[in-house]
Amino acid sequence: MSEPTSQTPKSRVAQAANLFDLRRIIGGVFVLYGVLLTVLGLLDSQEEIDKAAGVNINLWAGLGMLAFGLLMITWALTRPLSEELAEGEDPASAAPPVGVDAAALASHQRGGRPGAHDERPAGPGDARPE
User: Which residues contact 44 (CB under 8 A, 6 or more apart)?
Assistant: First the structure.
C-alpha cells in the first residue's frame, strides 16, 4: 500500500500553476496542428501544390507551427510558472510603481481633469447641490 502524500498548499498551487500554464496549452495546440499539417504536406499531390503557386504550403505552415509549439513548450519547461510565482512573493523585491502622478490620480478621482484646480478655496457661500 502506498502512503498518501501530504502536499503543502504552496506545492499544490505550484502544480496547478504549471498544469494550466498557457505556454504549455498553446504550445501543445500548435504542436498538434503542426504535426497534422506536416503529415498532410508530405502526402500532398503535385496538383495540390500547384494550386498554391508551386509552394507546399501545408508542409511549410506545419513546420512553422511545429517549431513555434516546441519553442513554447521548451520555454514553459525551462522557466516553470511556479518559480516565477515564488520570485514574485518576496515583498522586498517588489518595487513601487513608477510613473504614477499622485496629483493627477487624485484629480481624476475627484472627477476633474488633471491640472484643473480651483482658483479660490471653497467657502461657506459655496453650496454644493446634493
Answer: 56, 58, 59
